[in-house]
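Our platform keeps sequence and structure together, in a single record for each protein. Nothing more is needed to write down the fold, since each code stands for a local backbone conformation. An entry from our holdings is shown next, in its original layout:
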Amino acid sequence: MEKYDTTVKITDFYVNWMKIKSACMTTINKAAGKVPNIEWKKKLLICRHSPIRRGITSWKWKSIPYAISTHFVRHHEGCEKFVATEREDRTQIPREDRSQMNPIPVEMDANLQGLINISEKRLCMCADPTTRKYWEAVIEEIRKYSEVIAWSNVPQCVRCGGCPEVFGSCGFYKELMKDATIEEQQDLIRRYDIYNQKVRNLVLTDKSN
């Protein structure tokens, strides 16, 4: 039985790919044209061009430990946080009687770039394990709405092609890529595919959203 309830609810999901593509095409003086396919979406999410900020999602944890919520509050680019108060005059509970792991509700909004930024740090195997579980729960819920967006959210080692935690590597990336060729490791999209296949059992197809 899990010690903490990582249940999360997506409260809003607005990702209009034609609107995102329109912004991309406008920057090069062209029209949006056809609905983008899965390969185009993957490339745009990998490139992280500004139009992905047109895609926005919101979610709510009904019960997240206060100490864990502070890890998410540290993120500030492309996201907003709404954290339940622990003020004694509002809750009628003295702060001295509360634990750092006292559960509270938290809501967040984030654009697609904001999600990616959070994932780089909170999916990292050097992150707090409980924090990682809460964030994995968010990505799995997002996956129900868009597999390609879930695909694009990876730990920073997958993006960088190696562990950037120079103060203490966990060895995850080395284990992840132990069977990959040098050519595969040098291919950014292929690294994302390997991570998603091995960790999430996710293989994208042309029908993926």
Notes: The chain has a mean pLDDT of 94. The radius of gyration is 19 Å.
